[in-house]
Amino acid sequence: MTIVLQVRQDRWRDHLASVTSAAPGLVPVAKGNGYGFGVDVLAAEAAALGMDTLAVGTYTEVPGAASFGGTLAVLSPWRPFLGAPLHSPRLVHTLSRLQDLPALAQQAADAGAPPPRVLVEVETSMHRHGIPAGRLGEVEPLLHGLSLVGWTMHLPIAADNTGQARALGAAARQVRDAPLWVSHVPVERLAEVGPQVRLRMGTALWLGAADALAVRARVLDVHRLERGDRYGYRQRPSRRDATLLVVAGGTAHGVGLAAPTPATRLRQRGIALAEGGLAASGLARSPFVVGGRYAWFAEPPHMQCSMLWAPPGGPVPEVGDWLEVRLRHTTAHVDALVWA
Ligand SMILES: *Cc1c(COP(=O)(O)O)cnc(C)c1O
Hints:
- The chain is of the alpha/beta class.
- It folds into 2 domains: 8-208, Alpha-Beta Barrel (TIM Barrel), CATH 3.20.20; 211-339, Lyase, Ornithine Decarboxylase, Chain A, domain 1.
- It is 21% helix and 26% strand.
- It has an 8-stranded parallel beta sheet. A 6-stranded antiparallel β-barrel has the order 10-13-16-15-14-17.
- The radius of gyration is 24 Å and the shape is elongated.
- Bound molecules: pyridoxal-5'-phosphate (PLP).
- Pyridoxal-5'-phosphate is lined by residues 29, 31, 75, 154, 183, 200-204.
- Pyridoxal-5'-phosphate binds next to strand 9 and helix 6.
């Protein structure tokens, strides 16, 4: 247990309870790396919160959510080639193309399965998946052999999306009146979208109480180097007398994975270029905090550990000490959760 996600459970669960009670009908989302916790852990939390429905990302994530006994919605749209399970009565499929409605109904009928439960996705200004609003009129006759659970939309985060949700939701409900599932609408504006709206939420739910969460990693080795001493895979010479820290946490844990940020403004591009230059010269800021400061990578992170320079003039940690790591939770894979 050398890199862990520490969870202040009272604080974290208070946050979960306050979010879920403020948004009746909320559908928690547990997908990918389970937002740093693992899909299995979030499935158990969703069950403990009394949620009736949990959303996972893909069909491959369904077994990981086994401890959740309620309805499981799969967010990635169904495709004929996915080999999706047809006999599970608690599964809800997402259909995002007109031709997939009769295709799923037919697969289920051929397998002797009951009519699959489905959400039909409406295309939004995201343009990720969904049936264009102008073709929603074609949906009604294609619902034969399917059990419609609701309409669903994936909305962009940036813009004020309430108006879009309301307009598209109304268009869909003219075809067939059913609940409307949405993402990324502010809780306090849900009522403006219309009746029977269910909000899907992942990040703001699981990661919304930032002060309840901390990733920590152990110092595994400390080496004193003199100027000119070579170190690491790349055998670069040290530029000065310095302390090399070998810490738990490498690429396998998501160390060194930063979000690709859009460099839209000139100033941002300048910063990116500057950081690229630093990286090219072998210096990049690490997410490990030593004595209140980010330590610099001595070289790119290894699979399960990283080599860092102890910040000069600061305290030198000892083998076994814990360092804070500011990792992006959606790409982090820790060895264990520690409930504090
Ligand atoms: C991931 C996802 C969500 C949850 O997004 P967060 O930003 O983590 O809340 C909601 N809806 C769909 C379709 C998604 O893919």
